[in-house]
Design brief:
By secondary structure, this protein is an alpha/beta fold. A five-stranded parallel β-sheet has the order 4-3-5-6-7, sandwiched between helices. A five-stranded mixed β-sheet has the order 12-13-14-15-16, with helices on both faces. Strands 17, 18, 20, 21 and 22 form a five-stranded antiparallel β-sheet that branches. Helix 1 packs across helix 2 (about 35-50) and helix 10 (about 265-280) packs across helix 11. The radius of gyration is 23 Å and the shape is globular. It starts with 8 loop residues before the first helix and ends with a helix.
Amino acid sequence: MIKIPQRVLGEALLLSARENPTKTAIIIKTKEYSYSSLKESSEKLASHLILAGIKKGDRVAVYMNNSWQSIVSIYSITLAGAAFLVINPQTRADKLQYILNDSGSKILISESILSDELAQALGGTTDIQEVIITGDKNRIARYPHINLEDFENIVSENNSLIALPKIIPNDLAALIYTSGSTGFPKGVMMTHQSMVFTSWSLIEYLRLSGDDRILLLLPLAFDYGLYQLLMAVTVGGSLIVEQSFTFQTSVYKQIEMFKPTVFPGVPTIYAMMIATNKKTGLSFDCIKKVTNTAAALPAEFIPDLKKIFPKALIFKMYGLTECKRVCYLEPELVEVKADSVGKAIPGTEVFLLSPEGNPVPPGERGILHIRGPHVMLGYWHKEELSKEMLRQGNLPGERILCSNDWFKMDEEGFLYFLGRTDDIIKTRGEKVSPAEIENVIYKISGIKEVAIIGVPDEIMGESIIAYVTTHGNLQLGEQEIQKVCMSRLELFMVPQRVIFLDEMPKSSNSKIDKKELKKRCLENE
């Protein structure tokens, strides 16, 4: 029998369910869900979306914690021919409303535990026609223009399935929202072709198979988290789902119980595990592959990680939302090339150019550019911003991605990250717009000026520092400002430190001199 190749995202689920219907696809807490269960639930919800008026190319948003329902939602949306966008459950109401309106989402799938943010956001949405809720529907505020449906009722009904639309690789598969320099998030457009290609490229270099069990500790709204799901389903493996790494003991119990073979993490997670290892001798023999992205993995972590994961290959990687993953370092070279993030992922190319667009020789600084099928289509409804990131390639009509990150490349072609060229702060794997934090702090009574900077941090990539001046003798403390930020922003956006100044340093054009602030901060470390 001829094996049908995967062309679009949803086919991975259909193929895995056909080949191994009873195999465990998803494990959450102590409950296991089979591939046939995931397929059937996803098809039922997809049928509902189509009956509710969703057409190919429409956008459907998922605003949930990591859960069985969020996974079903992602696959139901892609099977229905729509583009999904997964919104971090930490997202506050004003940004949630902005993303829903910017994307033009017609349906929102969420959960009752997020009812407070939903109540504030939904009243000002322009396109939402229906909200599908898991949990207590009565906790959700009612709006006359929005239909409210029960998730559990939809997936438990025995209604006939609707014929699913024909999807081709060029169709829009997802919008992945990432922070922009203006303070407003941008929707990165990814086609089925780019996401399927990327999944298989990652699977190839990570050496994954259907025997692997991947542990998910990162939100599905974070592309690093999302691709753990996509890879697991594509190879017919299993995904062990956690909402976060907040409760370490619970995570360790899950590892002991379900024996994952793949551990994707970020430096903050590894730092906590190393601290525990030094106290208790924590280690896991079941883990065969350890992956890291977001912030660079410090070379000093490697010996300790080998104690925690004595049988694991350690993969260092670098990427950005606009193409998911750029490069990786073969685990056999993790000590030989300890400071490198490796070479381009399979099927892609990378090269360095000067700010003027000229090639740079080995050993010299240059801006990283990326070429391959994994590059985004552009930013949703933001043509000018898209042109800034997508440059003309060597072939007529081809577009390559400018990362806006400084790198150097050695004689053997290995890449070394040096820093960013733009204002965006990258912390804990998330892109953060300084303007978004500044706007929140400016709303505090008595604030005169605010400047947000990012400074290098071994664990987080960059830590966020807020410089503040106030009017008169206003008594305002660091914790008060942090508390306001926590109420209005995702937790990863809250400044680690707030520093009060009498006056802000200014440039010759009277703008706040952030370079001077960063210099002062680094000198005082």
